């Protein structure tokens, strides 16, 4: 979802770009992985990683989550470090799961890492980019929150799972709804990624979320209002734990109240920092 939106924005801005692939290229925009050694680029954006919500967290799937993030980042960072002409910047996807579940605590980039599987995964994920940083490449760790929106006219990601439920009037707060959600629209996310790529003063962790996080109860009410539907059916924590296991505690029940301190200090301006405005724009209200 993010890759498609980023590519569309780059094309709209008439910036040249290529997508790395492991198969034979099918379009002029694709570049086979083995050809990277002969390719010169100013910026590299690495977004690989299997969707953490696509499967129950069995031991084998947790291994896949790690491999798809840590191994790919390490290999790409090492490959870039070996280039005769290294890129200026490598922007690597990460997540606010780095901070773990921290209740009402306000979290910025200088906050310590949390505990739990996702927090440990994010720490290893970010550490895997070390070969690029050691080679003199500016490395930015893009700590994404919940991404709202879609590309090519379709709603995708978190909203795609929620909309059918809420449109039937079956939505409701999760486990009381007091847990914090740090979110961002896909449009602002793409703008933030390009802003970071173009800003030589930004390196290291970067929280890619709006400055106004909301609780799950607020999110539920705002989404239901935007869809003109009720949201009166609460979801108990035990039901999620039975259905999803460990994933429930680390995602839907986790409370992560994150702010984009470094983006704000660098002068980035969000176009949709308020949830009600963002949802109204998405649904044409």
Walk me through this protein's architecture.
The chain is of the alpha/beta class. The protein has a single domain, classed as 3-Layer(aba) Sandwich (Rossmann fold). It is 39% helix and 17% strand. It has eleven helices and 13 strands. The protein has helices at residues 2-12, 59-81, 117-127, 130-134, 157-167, 186-198, 216-226, 237-244, 246-250, 261-265, 275-282, and strands at 19-21, 30-32, 43-46, 89-95, 106-107, 138-144, 146-151, 154-156, 180-181, 183-185, 204-208, 214-215, 257-258. The strands form five sheets. Strands 3-4-6-11 form a four-stranded parallel sheet, with helices on both faces. It has a three-stranded mixed sheet with strand order 8-7-10. α2 links the parallel β3 (43-46) and β4. α1 packs across α6 (186-198) and α2 (59-81) packs parallel to α3 (117-127). The chain is globular. The two termini are 23 Å apart. The mean pLDDT is 93.
């Amino acid at each position: 979802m993010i890759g498609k939106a980023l590519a569309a924005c780059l094309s709209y801005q008439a910036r040249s770009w290529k997508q790395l692939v492991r198969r034979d290229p099918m379009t002029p925009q694709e570049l086979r992985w083995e050809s990277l050694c002969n390719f010169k680029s100013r910026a590299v954006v690495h977004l690989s990683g299997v969707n953490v919500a696509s499967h129950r967290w069995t031991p084998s799937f947790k291994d896949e989550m790690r491999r798809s993030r840590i191994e790919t980042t390490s290999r790409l960072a090492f490959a870039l470090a070996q280039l005769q002409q290294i890129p200026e910047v490598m922007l690597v996807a990460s997540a606010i799961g780095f901070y773990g579940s921290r209740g009402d605590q306000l979290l910025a980039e200088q906050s310590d890492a949390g505990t739990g599987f996702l927090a440990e995964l994010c720490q290893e994920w970010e550490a895997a980019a070390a070969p690029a940083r050691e080679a003199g490449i500016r490395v930015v760790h893009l700590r994404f929150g919940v991404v709202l929106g879609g590309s090519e006219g379709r709603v995708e990601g978190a909203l795609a799972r929620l909309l059918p439920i809420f449109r039937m009037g079956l939505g409701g707060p999760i486990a009381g709804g007091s847990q914090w959600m740090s979110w961002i629209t896909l449009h602002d996310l793409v703008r933030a990624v390009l802003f970071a790529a173009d800003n030589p003063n930004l390196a290291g962790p970067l929280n890619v979320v709006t400055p106004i996080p909301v609780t799950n109860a607020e999110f539920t009410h705002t989404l239901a209002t935007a869809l003109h539907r009720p949201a009166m059916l609460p979801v108990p924590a035990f039901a999620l734990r039975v259905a999803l296991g460990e994933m429930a505690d680390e995602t839907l029940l986790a409370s992560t109240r994150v702010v984009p301190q470094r983006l704000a200090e660098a002068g980035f301006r969000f176009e949709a920092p308020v949830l009600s405005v963002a949802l109204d724009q998405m649904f044409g209200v």
